[in-house]
Amino acid sequence: MLITRRAALGALAATPVLAAPAVRAQAPVQITFNYPVAVGGPITKVIDGYCADFERANPGIRVRPVYTGTYQDSITKALTAARGGDAPQMACLLSTDMFTLIDEGVVVSWDELPGADKGWTGGFYPGFMENSRTGGKTWGIPFQRSTIVMYYNKDAFREAGLNPEVAPATWAEQVSFAQKLTKRQGENTTQWGIQIPGNGFAYWMFQAMATQNDVRLMNEAGDRTSFADPKAIEAAQYWLDLSTKHKVQPPGIVEWGTTPRDFFERKVAMMWTTTGNLTNVKTNAPFPFGVAMLPAGRKRGSPTGGGNLYVFKSASPAQREAAVKFARFLTEPERAAQWGIDTGYVASSPAAWETPKMKEYVAGFPAAAVARDQLPHAVAELSTHENQRVTKALEDALQSVLTSRVQPAAALTKAQDDAERVLRSYR
Predict the structure, then answer these.
(1) pTM reported for the whole predicted model
(2) What are phi and psi of 175, to 5 degrees?
């Protein structure tokens, strides 16, 4: 060792310029993390904080968050960047984008990545993994996940003679409650009984009703749909009837983005929306509110929703390793619990719900556990090959139904025919 060291010192003295790179500090591994911002609350500040915390704990890694707009904008930007050779190394995209990302050949399965062992990937709720696995491989890690829940104004319930601690448990009760909650002054409706948004995520709201009516809208392989099933048509008719027959929901297409504000302004007494709005409602509702599972038709049910973490093929081996470390950091039970508390999204692992901070939070705010308790009734969100085309066919059909331009049977039959033309080649 002494001879080797002296020889090395001599070499350094003779050629100081050539030896300089050997003592230069290694450059940190950098990863770009694309993240959607079309969600309620100060999400960007939370994510910025996580990135900073991660870098402090891992000084050899730098994470650059890039906020990419809506989920739809985010998948478009990610695919465009990938095709142009400039893909992010990691992105949070809809769980339903899984088949699209696989078909485009731009992502790598987590099973192939160093450090992504089955002890970790197997620790998430099975309901969330339905939209995260296919073909025996794990493609997405559940992070920003949700289900649909009902929010209701307890003061409005009291005024209508309803028990403010009991939400409607069935479709029939939902109509009955909504009729009592609807207020009219002459021709004007000052408070609607219920509001289920019909744009932006109409397919998601409809899938909840279809699930409650005991029909699954797609198969596990993502190559068949059941839009024209008689029970799906019946579910669409129920949604339409809320406005045209029972007159307890605003007519036409109710906006996704304004529904929480309508709730805060007492224009509506009950609303369906994502549990990701929980913290938004908790912060901004000027009245006591309740959160409940969605009511049952033939059964209870809701699709899951929200975003998964994906790693892109273009990432170098070092970047892939860094992405796994970052994903594991984001989903640690303590952090996942705090994420759920800060945002309202469902902490995606049972371990997160067993942490002291989550137990304390639920004890003081039981509504936080409703989405988790609904998971046994949940199904995978609508996801197929060429998912955007298939979903658009269903969205167009639902909007034609809600605006009373086309009857449910005709509209959903057309949507099924359109989906079949897209999916036939994948079977």
Answers:
(1) 0.88
(2) -65, -45
